[in-house]
Amino acid sequence: MTSYRATVKGHYLDAVSNQADQTNLFLYVVDGEWIGGLSIPDIDALGGGAHSINGETFEEVHDQPVSDWIEAFEIELDELTDF
Question: Global pTM?
Fold first, then answer.
């Protein structure tokens, strides 16, 4: 996997962050295919988590709270690693 970082102006998060006038984008590529990315306002003290590449929260992308997703992931991981 290759990751790329770009800093852009005019992103949705610039308007809603109230502190940043630019946003950092992180793009992920595998075998020449873009597989995803995330965006984070370009400020030193960031509260909260990363957003989708277009500025959506985890809940907006996955239609569930991140805590529920983490719990399900931990259960699945335990099952996969239970020898």
Answer: 0.59
- How far apart are alpha carbons 44 and 31 in whole angstroms? 33
Domain enclosing residue 39, as ranges: 2-58
**Is the residue at 73 inside a domain?**
no
CB 25 within 8 A of CB 52: no
Domains in the chain, number: 1
The 10s digit of each residue's pLDDT in 17-44 is 777 788 889 999 999 998 988 888 887 7
Residue at 11 is within a domain: yes
**10 in any annotated domain:** yes
Q: Do residues 42 and 23 lie in contact, with contact meaning Cβ atoms separated by under 8 Å?
A: yes
Cα–Cα distance, 27 to 42 (Å, whole number): 15
Tens-place pLDDT, residues 48-63:
567 787 778 888 888 8
